[in-house]
Amino acid sequence: MKTLILGANSAIAKAVAEILAGKGEELYLASRNYEETERFASHLRVKYGVKTYADRFDAMDYDSHGPFFRKVLKEMGEIDRVLIAFGYLGDQERAVRDFSEARRIIEINYLGAVSILTHIVPYMEERGKGTIAAISSVAGDRGRGSNFTYGSAKGALSIYLSGLRNRLYRKGVRVVTIKPGFVATPMTAHLDLPKRLVSKPERVARDIVMAIEKGKDEVYTPGYWRFIMWVIKAIPEPIFKRLNLR
Length: 246
What we know:
Elements: E1 2-6, H1 11-22, E2 26-31, H2 34-48, E3 52-56, H3 65-76, E4 81-84, H4 92-97, H5 99-127, E5 130-135, H6 148-168, E6 173-180, E7 182-183, E8 198-199, H7 201-214, E9 218-221, H8 224-234, H9 237-243
Parallel strand pairs: 1-2, 1-4, 2-3, 4-5, 5-6, 6-9, 7-8
């Protein structure tokens, strides 16, 4: 299998790459920080003896996405699976007052994914097989005061992936929506999260790999988040706003 991982320097993406490299898969890793990506790719080559590539990818540099994907295909020959793992939590308080911050959150979490997928999807459609997986979030299931800009972008991504899944199903292409709950990563290190609900990236990575290999439509990770979000979504709005679940 040949897998492209975008946002390859995130804690979750690295954990996924470790699992796939351990299975002998060929990996193309890309992120904004090329030097860190190359070091990690080299680590996987040495540790697992697999073929890896490293490149720079910026979710907000839309004009570069077409040339980037053509380069990936040229170097790898073909792509079996794609994992979109980049994201940006941002500062909600700032985003309320500063459109540049709100725009950055929306562009990285939603528009960046849509942009690169406009190049990946036609390739997958023509090929008639493959898997597209993208990390969304439970934050996209219902708006909360503390992160509604991030949540709205992830919610938009989830809906986009749902429609894409319906479009590509008969073409033989799988689309997997991944919805993690609280994960202990550098992006969430500054947040005061309930410790019992915080998972390690390795746990989430195992669920992601399983979902991709089994061709799942949507996966909450860890699995108990499906029940948690079912309860949260069922709360009537008049009650929900009074609960002030930040």
